[in-house]
Amino acid sequence: MLLFALGASHAFGSSLASALDLSLSPHEERGFEDGEHKARPLVDVRGADVYVVQSLHGGPEQESADKLIRLLFFLATVRDHGAARVTAVVPYLAYARKDRRTQPYDPIGSRYLAQLFESVGTDVLLTLEVHNPAAFDNSFRCRAVHVSAHPLFEEAATRCDDGSALVVASPDPGGVKRVLLWRETLERRIGRPLGQAFLDKTRREGVVGGSTIVIGDVAGATVLILDDIVSTGTTMARAASALVAGGARRIFAFAAHGLFVGDAATVLRTAPIERVYVSDSIPPFRLPQDWIGSRVQVLGAAPLFAAAIRRQAGAVIDPLARS
Which residues are CB-neighbours of 166 under 8 A, at least 6 positions away? Predict the structure, then answer.
């Protein structure tokens, strides 16, 4: 097994290598004056089981499209040089949220993304908590593995439990299934029934709307809001305010991916949320750094990916295979 981490995701790759008890395989990345680039492995990949790590969030130095093409080129390179199996490890999968047509002539970004990965010979794609798992599965012809973020949040959720009524809430109707599955898992861990709630939400031309009616009983409860992404923070803040108006005592927010774009810091600063939990699929470089560890807790997702890779490998990794 060979594990590469492209420069923009070196920190996550190092964590994953540690979780797998491996060393990162060496590679070279070069940039050119006109913005083009070149990357190549510095070890022989012929016959190897190759994993390449690159998260596709925008910033701080490269945007999503740039990271995507760098990843595709590197995957194609190791395939050209004889890798037996090529796996893309993509903690945050950009462009995957656009998975259906909602207006005339709409693109279906998730399908086009899948076609790009397939075209360069990707055998497997691993990613964390996609927006719509069913659409994700249906987009790919190569093997696509959805790594759930739920195990990452379980311990933190139990720390939020103060013995009062505990409710898991979705900030919109589309996340109800996600919340249902997590609630069932938490009930087994905590050992008592939990409530469930959701809010109405619409989005048109980037503007969040819909009623702020809470469906479910949250009076006197500690509420755990669960979503796949925190982007501008508007959805989380809107949901938290509605839940408080519905009688909730305490609010905690959980999301696999913390984009925190635009005015997210300003929006969340005034929201009635005690703490936001996110994974490290996206470094929280857009937030005030004094928030990290206090208002925002970043949880390492590398062990989840390491477990998925071990399942795929089908055997204990041989330490002699380290690069």
Answer: 160, 186, 190, 194, 195, 221, 222, 224
* Whole-number Å distance between alpha carbons of 65 and 56: 8
- At 208 the pLDDT is 53
* Tally of residues, the chain: 323
Sign of the CA dihedral 238, 157, 284, 291? positive
Nearest C-alpha neighbor of 244 from the set 269, 214, 265, 266: 214
pLDDT at 315: 44
Interval 139-153: pLDDT, tens:
999 999 999 999 999
- Residues annotated as catalytic are 201
Neighbours of 296 (CB within 10 A): 21
Please state, in angstroms and rounded to a whole number, the distance separating the CA atoms of residues 132 and 178.
9
Alpha helices in 246-285 (DSSP H): 264-269
Inter-CA distances, 268 with 159, 170, 250, 274, Å: 21, 17, 15, 10
Find, among 124, 129, 258, 246, the residue nearest to 182 by Cα.
Answer: 129
- Three-state SS at 197: strand
The whole-chain average pLDDT of the chain stands at: 92
Q: What is the mean pLDDT of residues 276-282?
A: 98
Q: Looking at the predicted structure, is the pLDDT value of residue 211 above 70?
A: no
Report the half-sphere exposure of 49 (CA within 13 A, side-chain side). Answer: 12
**pLDDT, mean of residues 141-166:** 94
